[in-house]
Amino acid sequence: MKNILFPPRNADRSSPSQPSPPLQLLAVVCAGDQGLFTSLYTPLAQQLPREPMEWRRTYGRAPKMIHLEANFVQFKEELLPKEGNKALLTFPFLHIYWTDCCDTEAYKGSVKEDMMRWQNSLRAHGSADWVIVVVETNDAKKKNKTNILPRSSIVDKIRNDFCNKQNDRCVVLSDPLKDSSRSQESWSSFLLKLRTLLLMSFTKNLGRFEDDMRTLREKRTQPGWSFCEYFMVQEELAFVFEMLQQFEDALVQYDELDALFTQYVLNFGAGDGANWLGSFCAPVRSWSGLLLRRPIDMEKRDGIQHGEASLLDLRSYLFSRQCTLLIFLQRPWEVTQRALELLHNCVQELHLLEVSVLEGALDCWVFLSCLEVLHRIEGCCDQAQLAANCSHTVGLWAYATDKLKSLGELCGLVSDKGPTSEDLNRTVDLLAGLGDERPETANSLQSPYKKLKEALSSVEAFERHYLELSHAAMEMYRAIGRLRSARLVGKSLAEFYMRKGDPERAEAFLQEALKSYVSEGWSLPVTHTRKQIAECQKLLGRTEDYLQTSALLAGDVNLSSEERKHFCQEILTFASKSTDKSQKVILSMGAFAQLTRLQFHPATASVHSGADLQVELSLQSLMPVSVCVQQLAASIHFSLEHGGTHGRSKGTQKQTNIGTVDFSQGNLSACPLSSSAAGPSLELDEIQDRSPSDNSLNSTGMVCKNTHLVMRRHDSSSSPDTPNCVSPPTVALDDGAHMLKVQDITLEPGSNSVVFTAPSGDPGTYTLRQLCATVGQVQFVLPHIYPLVQYEVYSQEPLLTVEPLSEPLLAGLPQMVKFTLLTGHYTVKKGDALQLSNTETMPIMPSTSCTASIRNTASLLSIQSSEKVTSISLPPTPPYHTLEFQLEVLCIIPSGSDRPANERLTNGEVRHRDTQRPYHEILTSLMSIDCPWSIYSTLLALTFYIPFKTKHSLLSAGNRKYIQVCVQNVSDVNFQLVDVKLTEKQHASLELHSLNTKAQQLVCSKQSVFCLWEVRWKADLPSCLQCVFSANFSPLNQDISAFKPFHYHFQLERVTTLYSVQAEILPAAGEQHCRSGALCGLEVCITRLTEPGENEMGEESKADSDGLKTTKLMYEVADSSSNWAVCGKSSGMVSMPMLANATHKVQIEVMPLFAGHLPFPKIKVLKYLPHTAAPAIQPDPDSCVENDSLSLLDKTLDDQGDTASIRSRGSVHSVGSGEQQQRGLAMPRLEPFSPGQVFNHSHARQVLVLPATDDHIMEVNAT
Q1: Is residue 172 classed as helix, strand or coil in its secondary structure?
Q2: Is the CB of residue 455 less than 8 Å from the CB of residue 427?
Q3: Given 269, 358, 546, 792, which residue has the most CB atoms within 10 angstroms?
Q4: What topology is assigned to 553-678+723-794 in CATH?
Q5: How far apart are CA 732 and CA 710, in angstroms?
Q6: What is the pLDDT of residue 138?
Q7: Are 888 and 842 in contact (CB under 8 A)?
Q8: By C-alpha distance, which of 703, 619, 666 is closest to 787?
Q9: Which CATH topology does 26-140+151-219 take?
Q10: This model's pTM is above 0.85
Q11: What are the GO BP annotations of this UniProt entry (predicted)?
């Protein structure tokens, strides 16, 4: 809270605009030398409250800093508390005896006796809080030099005489009126002592008072207990806290009294009443409202003290005290909140206590109280604060407006006829109960008293004040965003205008209120408000609006049957008028009937041109009686389909099934119910643009079908076509060329079914846009049918498709394909035939028993076949029918050399293989068909799959050679193989000896068969073999005639064994077997087996100094299974003479890592080709040797016998860096031997490795 105008702590407390508690301060009684005290009173009263003291309270309550202000009074016997008097406000908390005596004789003669009388009086009244102040001045000492005692003698005597055990009760004040450091120090010490004693006394007596108050409260269940007496006791505690400016603690006391009284009233309502409540049940004689301009309303307080206060008096006084404390606490907005609760609770409490109140008196009291609170808050805050915090005060404005309206109705000030004599008498009685105006507001022109008295004085004054309050409340509600409350006040204003005979203004407020009720779904207030709107519209003569509202009320189930029939009859009466026929009234159909379902027959909602299509509408009539409809029509929008959009696919619609659309209550119009803020959902269609020549896809996209619904503006009102609409807008009626019409039907209350015959002459898309029911001069129109409802009329070109009868089509076997002809608009006449072009790779196998099916009717086909063309005569077929027949075709499997290198479709695109199919090879056969309805030939492609995947391998055993062929069945059919053969086409002397024992082999689905032949030769083994694998196959359990041939061509090169590699592993010296972890010797022996051939005498060989041809080989020892560790060099270069039986041995140290029968390390032998040699095969880019291992070959490797480790990967290895290769420099490389050129004798050998000897020392302790 900012800038709130509160009085400062020491402000004038007599100003009513700045209230402060008019209470006494802490009482301090002064005895002794009154002249001395009088001289010190002013500085003492000023300096005592300057310094705060820490106040520590009991029961664990938090300490607080307080300023102590005292009321110093002269000692009198009457001021001492009497026995049984527990009042705090008049209680003397501290007694002070003042003396400046420094003469021994004077002390003994009079001062001592006066002190003794003073102490005896205190002791007799039980007052133990006292202090003796001895004031020392230099002037007094000078006057009595002869009798003067030492400085502390008088103080010591006083302490010995009166303060035996309480020496701190005697205080010395030195020269208090002088401005010296000694005086200031003495004065500060005295003030601290005085504050401490005063606070101790106050805390002690306050605790005693609180204990007594609690004891009194605990006795509230005993007979004779009085709430008013307890009220005065606890209020005295609140006064004490307020006196100390502890306003929060003071407010707590009043809140406790408020809660205690409220609980007693609630118990009384529940049947448990207290006797003292009887005084509050007296009839209310005064209703002057709250009085908040006085800090304490002594008149009402006296009434409470004497038990004569009424319920309104008690509540008024209690709230006025709470208001005062809240203002001091700078919480004015809490005052408004509490005031609103108080006013509502007081009304209820009067009903619970059954208090007799004059009719209208409570309204007067509430009205005056609301304005009094508002005026009190206005006195504390400026206009900017009031405007910023109007959310706290608007409730009081609205409550005052409501009560003023009730008073106006009670006193006859609202009716257009004015008040009667009885109303005037009632007004006089109400004004009499207000009493005289309070003096605090007598000079104010806008006091609540004057406003109420003026408002009840005349009709014009009442209207002025009521409109002023109503508009103020509405503006405040709108400013804080509470539109519902603003419209509720407006609805009350509308009722006021209706009583005043002004329906035009009333309707505007009623329409605003209706918006809130509709948007929040309050059905009963919607019905009640609509009835009021209908009354206004009827009085204003707005026929169309009145009929629309009457239609809504006729279908409203919240009304009785008689009321609904009345409003329905209003519509029918107007409709039956025979006046101007051209002037029709267009109303929204949402109030008349609801479209619940639409069904197409046939259900596909798609027919060819000229076919029959029926549309069945299900309507739910909301009228309470049967209504004769002269015409029910649906307007249709026709759109012509073009080539680019002919192939579009339908978007997903909210349908129960194809051809049926169910409409919910929120989907009857262009927008959903007003409670939904999302708007209508998007209705999307996919658009595909295809080429007219080959139907290939050019582009695709999305189109919104209900753009006119999505893009239209939505306001806060509901849809005009729903039964909950506020103010139905003007409905536009389309009059298109295409209409669905039905004449003279009767709509019964509830469900009705209407069948239309839809037009289907022109091909295109027909969209249902509007629905119109004509009843005489009235037309009920549904402007938008939502979701979108369409049906299609098509004109289709003939379409011929060929598809396999079963997937997949297998090459090499007769397969059935299905021809399907959709005739479209074409009529197949007698003599029409299909001309199929024959191809060598896929001959058609005609059958004399081939039949065609037309609507389950079989007709025999006539098929004539020649060398190039197969002609199929078609039976006569009407338009839009389907003709089906089957033909048997055979795709011949080409030999390996004749198979296509790539597979391309007719449009040049490369066919992408189906990764889900396991077939190795795919064959595509093209078929050209000439149709009688087209001058162009139709190209159809059939895809066949070769059922076998075949691969071969060359196996060696020393110099002996074997050829293995693997036939894998990749289809789902089980085959049998017979006449399995392998032949070599170029060398007649070569013999291929079959090692296959079975003449017939079974190849199951997804299984393989291996066939093996041994190669035998007489002279020399050719380096290249041209082989043909052949077999006959057929599905299982077929006769011999079903077998078809299968051929597989392949070529084997470099089949001669050039080198043999033998290896031996020798244990360490002195060991019989190898041991793990110990070095062993690996001896590798490479032997040349044959003389060099012509192709080996090229650049890869080199002549040494003796003229002997040599070649360089590279060996590499590696163990991928991690059983061996190669120590030292694992690879190297050897120079092999190109002579038969030439041998080279290599010694390598290896170490077994595990014990057991370990396989020999893997030994690789590669050809080393110099940079001048041409590669025998193209190098694989993924098989380059690592660059970091090639630096060893930068030197002339031709002169080196051995090198360091060169690790090779793959088949061909380039020796050199990638940078050198990029510059195009010729580098040495490694090339692997072909399979069979190198035979490794130790390939599958194993060697026994024993565990390493391990000596362990075990310590054993025996105890």
Answers
A1: strand
A2: no
A3: 546
A4: Immunoglobulin-like (2.60.40)
A5: 18
A6: 67
A7: no
A8: 666
A9: Rossmann fold (3.40.50)
A10: no
A11: early endosome to Golgi transport; intra-Golgi vesicle-mediated transport
